[in-house]
Amino acid sequence: MPFRTTRLKTPHSDLAAQFAAIRDGLEISVSFDAAVEAEARRATAHVPMPEADATDIEFVTIDPEGSKDLDQALFIEKTESGFRVFYAIADLPSVVEPGGAIDREARERGQTMYSPDESAPLHPRVISEDGASLLPGVVRAAYVWAIDLDETGKRVSSTLKRARVQSREQLTYDEAQRRVDSGDPLMTLLKQVGELRIAREADRGGASLDMPEEEIVADGNSWTIKRSQLLPVEQWNAQISLMTGMEAARLQLEAGRGILRTMPRPPHDAMVNFRREVQEMGIPFAEDEEYGAFLRRLHRNHPAAVAVLMAARSLFRGADYHVLTGSENPDDVIQAAIGAPYAHTTAPLRRLVDRYVLAHCEAIANGTEIPAWASEGLEDLPEIMAASSQKAGALERECIAAVTAVILAPRVGETFDGLIVDRREKRAEVELLDPPVTTTAVMAGEPGTAVQLRLESITDAKPVFVAA
Questions:
Q1: Cis status, amide bond into 98, omega within 30 of 0
Q2: pTM for the full model?
Q3: How far apart are CA 129 and CA 121, in angstroms?
Q4: How far apart (Å, rounded) are the C-alpha atoms in residues 88 and 71?
Q5: Measured at the alpha carbon of residue 121, what is the angle toward residues 116 and 123, in degrees to the nearest 5?
Q6: Cα–Cα distance between 337 and 239 in angstroms, integer?
Q7: Which parts of 171-263 fold into alpha helices (H)?
Q8: pLDDT tens profile 343-399
């Protein structure tokens, strides 16, 4: 089952009402009360600007089309010994008053929630899409990382300071990829550094689960399910963010203060089961080969590639946040998929924990006192972030299910081709070829098996499939 982009349209305009009902059921609000909005307007009207001036650095942002909440901007230059990566992160701590209305509301929300028709932002839009966003052509306060790499992409040193920045351009992923392909100097350096960092990831024993992205988007008066493989530039861009998160973890570990994003190494039983499933699909997987190396060499056009990646999800579980006490061994707080300690720090407009990590890292990097609000606010963050992640996942699943039901409603009785990607006792998880959705059915067959399903009915807005 090769990766591709598939678009399926439904003319049902009432889906927006269903999305709103889903948000209401999950207690997700797209708006803020008057006190929060008023505080946000006051805060963005008088943002304290840093003395340091980095507006001469020709930063650009790279984000999905239509994005307004721009957390990061990058610039890369070649040096005599390798590369210097500048990474500017939106300065939320200068906008959010500790203990104020915005702060309290953000701790309730945890992160921005995305549904097909609109988002429920972590902060009022006057902050996240305007006053603190790294929009092109305007001067913004930012945390500016400068990370030096050698010619192999290995980290040499880094600095972090608050500074004024001015992004030159806002690029979409498609635009950035076209510039890579046309030889644009900055994008060429991003490709070079990105590929070097992927190689370093392999050296660390890291692993990437680059599942095809599934997104519901508005297309005129209808809705579309879009599934596509990541562009190469998205993977290279992600490596810059991961590298910055590793630097944030290093600083906090050295100080023994802060909060890390962790994930344990796959349990032995999970590895045994995954290796068995892969071998049953007819794909060689040697006993001494690391799962990260296997996933990197897996050809994404292999007929069983989707089934393999679905099965690999069992190896990427147990992600959590760990508040540092000062007694940690770095090996005990690793993010196994990255192969190193790691911290969330590059998306403060959209994720609560990043604001706290930034405040810790800037103080540690410059030998100043960590702000009291940042230290005192850590204790509840793991619970806040876990709850918000569960809610975000439920929102995504329910919205996709709503669109799927509408698309399939006129096709009751039809037969669909699919691929078993996982199974739980008698039920198989099946990836349909067309439409590109995942469903379950009581049927025989192991992961990687091509099957046919018949759509028997739509019950309570959920499709019911049986073996054809």
A1: no
A2: 0.91
A3: 9
A4: 8
A5: 170
A6: 13
A7: 173-182, 185-204, 232-255
A8: 999 999 999 999 999 999 999 999 999 999 999 999 999 999 999 999 999 999 898
Tokens of 407: 């698309």
Sequence letter at residue 323? V
Chain position carrying tokens 């500790």: 98
The H or E element spanning position 195 is helix 185-204
13 band by pLDDT with thresholds 50, 70 and 90: low
Over the stretch 47-58, which tens digit does the pLDDT of each residue have? 999 999 999 999
Structure tokens at 319: 């992600």
Q: Return the structure tokens found at 183.
A: 């030889």
* 75: enclosing H helix or E strand: strand 72-78
Stretch 62-73: mean pLDDT: 95
- Going by the DSSP 8-state scheme, the letter that residue 96 receives in this structure is S
| Beta partners for residue 340, in sequence order | 335
For the record, the structure tokens of 282 come out as: 């007819």
Closest CA to 144 of 222, 89, 197: 89
Residue in this structure with the two tokens 């200068």, named with its chain if needed: 94
Count of positions (residues) in the chain: 468
